[in-house]
Amino acid sequence: MKHLTSLIFCLTLFFFSCDDKKVVYNSEDLNVLFIMTDDLNCDLGSYGHPQVLSPNIDKLAENGMLFLNAHNQFPLCGPSRTSLMTGMYSNQTKHTKLDVDVRQTIPDVVTLGQRFKQRGYTSVRIGKIYHYGNPGTIGTSGAQDDISTWTYTINPYGRDKEEEYKINTLKPRQYGGTLSWLAADGLDEEQTDGIGASEAIEQLEKFSKNGKKFFLAVGMYKPHTPFVAPKKYFDMYDQNEMEIPYSGSSDEYLNTLPEPAQASVRWKKDQIKLNNPEHNQLAKEIKEAYYATTTFVDAQIGRILKKLKKTGLDKNTIVVFTSDHGYHLGEHGHWQKQTLFENSTRVPLIFSGPKVPIGLVSNSPVELIDIYPTLTDLTKIETPSHVVGKSLVPIFKENDFKVRESALTRWKASQHKKKFEGYSIKTERYRLTMWGENGSDGFELYDHQNDPEELINLANTIENKLILDSLKDHIKFRVSDAMKIPPGLGRQFEERPLHKEVNYTPGDIHNIEGKRIYIKPSDE
Fold first, then answer.
1. How do residues 142-166 score in pLDDT, each as one tens digit?
2. Which CATH number do you get for residue 371?
3. Total structural domains in the chain?
4. If both were cysteines, with which of 25, 200, 235, 436 could 316 make a disulfide (CB 3.0 to 4.6 Å apart)?
5. Minimal CA–CA distance to 327: which of 285, 286, 382?
6. Catalytic residue among 42, 77, 328, 332
């Protein structure tokens, strides 16, 4: 027995002293590289878009598994990210607004990064994972970050922030929630996300040498407004080839929707002029900027993945790539998020690495809250009982397997003294949206087989009554289930948004009352 123990020990030393390609890893040794983007929709090459250049994301999909039918649980940065990081719906996290600390509503929750910390991983955040005022709090830890989640954090701050005064915008000095854009001077590595990628590269180099297990979360701030990228990315696109969809912009179309749906695509008053063909060239300029910024983000992701492979860490690292929600680029006459249309609820989702099949695609309905239990399943870490998301590992084994029949998204807002709340489910073929309690404010039904752009509301057609009634029963069950308090969650409080961050553009000067008394000119 003593000789057998010695033999096993020697063999172990042999395996771990060999070339990287020969190293044998146990499932418990798997690392996680989690890459999160901000406001990125599915306009990507790997999702069939003919125009957008995203070679690195596309290659990641080729080497892993791509989910065509993935959806967020609330189409707004803060609530969506909290759901993802806790594996729960917004009814359970009590997050429906920005500027809410995760511990204020659910102080006892075990977050995704925290769970890996509990199991001996080094949990690192670079950039934006929880909500941050973007670009207002770039360079800081942000008021909504959670110290229990991370071992340590890194906050990049780049030229895009320093030269913010140069940015074009529909409203002066408004960037984060307003369409704004800039073809910037300088190098990738000078931009905030370029610096974030460089920091990630440095962390991977360190982990490759110290051998520590890691959960490395890299949060890109783009393509969220302002759409800023070095000029070379703008040069990759022909502005005149940008197509602006006007089919959902008319008053006639709006009248086919329930009032809350109308409000959701008309709440940004400063952008409504883009629905007028007279402003077609401006709309094209803005859309080009979004695509250029997407390609810039893709390039930074490529730098990180190249380093992962160079260090040999790709052999025992699960890579997850996604976004917090989608983004309208003129569809339904809207240029933002916060709707219950496909453009806003749908997100890219790709897994790659050990235990993940290569080159598979699934149209099964999945949710962002499924990332948490999927990662703990792959790494053989026990999942906390409060996590209601479902592991996607069964879909890795059978790509048409369904862990649920639909993906659920909720939206809630107050506009013009009116309160709107709705839920939407997306099955493999249909979308049903229910506004108000039990549909008191109306329904929308879309058949993606015949209407992928969701422009023909079938909710009031007799010939679709059977499918409508069936989906009504299903959505009511989904909503009721999402309202249940999960076991093991602990305390739960109603949300109280913190003081909203104010964006200070570098170069401007304010008096002691906070009033801006000098605006730095864009040509300085």
1. 888 999 999 999 999 999 999 999 9
2. 3.40.720.10
3. 1
4. 25
5. 286
6. 77
Q: Roughly what angle, to the nearest 10 degrees, separates helices 371-378 and 77-86?
A: 30
Catalytic pick among 71, 95, 131, 386: 131
The string of pLDDT tens digits covering residues 179-223 is 999 999 999 999 999 999 999 999 999 999 999 999 999 999 999
In a domain, 38, yes or no: yes
Kindly report the average pLDDT of the chain as a whole number. 93
Question: Can you give the pLDDT at residue 502?
Answer: 80
Instruction: Report the relative pairing of strands 317-323 and 31-38 from DSSP bridges.
Output: parallel
The per-residue pLDDT for range 22-43, each reduced to its tens digit, is 333 344 689 999 999 999 999 9
Query: Residue 78 in 3-state DSSP?
Result: helix
Q: Which helix (H) or strand (E) holds 401?
A: none
Question: Does residue 442 sit within a domain?
Answer: no
Interatomic CA distance for residues 518 and 520, integer angstroms: 6
Confidence band for 1, pLDDT divided at 50, 70 and 90: very low
| Closest C-alpha among 223, 218, 126, 219 to residue 182 | 223
Domain that holds residue 348: 28-402
**SS3 state at 183:** strand
Active-site residue flag, 77: yes
Would residue 145 count as lying in a domain?
Answer: yes
Tally of CB atoms within 10 A around 417? 5
CB 509 within 8 A of CB 516: yes
Judge whether 431 and 424 are in contact, CB under 8 Å: yes
